[in-house]
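Hi everyone,

Forwarding the result from last night's run.
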Amino acid sequence: MADTEPLIEFLCDPALEGSIPPPERAVRFAPEWFKRLDRELGVPDAHGLPGLTVKACLPVTDAFSLGYVIPLPFDVMLRVPEDRVAIQLGWGPDVPFQPVEQHLPEQIGAPEHPFESAMPLKFINPWRIKVPEGYSVLFAPPFSRPDLPFTCFSGLVDCDRFATTINFPFLWTGETGDHYLPAGTPLVQAVPIRRDALLKQAQARAATEEELAEQDAARARKYGEESVYSREWREKK
């Protein structure tokens, strides 16, 4: 019998199933600023090849596609004052739990630098994450999303051993004033990582002559051939 493919599972209270947006593959949350870009600029680059936008950068695309995104379960309103500290929060009367809570500013060392004007908040996540034995999950701000008005703190959790939900502390980084975050807004990108695949040894050294020649040859191909990365160097994720 063939081995079962490793599976990540997102579990919620049965009373919430179907009423809140579920986590999905991260690629489904690619931002509008990225979607609306054309692939080509319409002018050649400095090397005579077609000038390209970030839409053609496969490493960026692969990062957008990595893992899963956990979305905001309910609509949330925030009123952010000029001091960016006394933030007011609101949501509908039928919401079954408080989707955002406050931390104590002292928990991040506020008001010391870099948190002189900051109120740490926390998204309450209704999803428990189950992964196979030996897996951890990296929770990070959605990759390449400067359009989001908040930034979650990153964390690595051994979800194969942690049998409850994980909440997401964040800072409001957007403008002051009144703001509306609709249900489905991407909160964090969740990337399963097998712990025995982590590289724990590192070395910084001078390149050998052979390695320098290899690097020069790759650079020449990168700037002299169209789509060489996608044709020869990229592995489909």
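Helices lie at 32-35, 58-64, 209-224, 228-233.

Cheers,
N.
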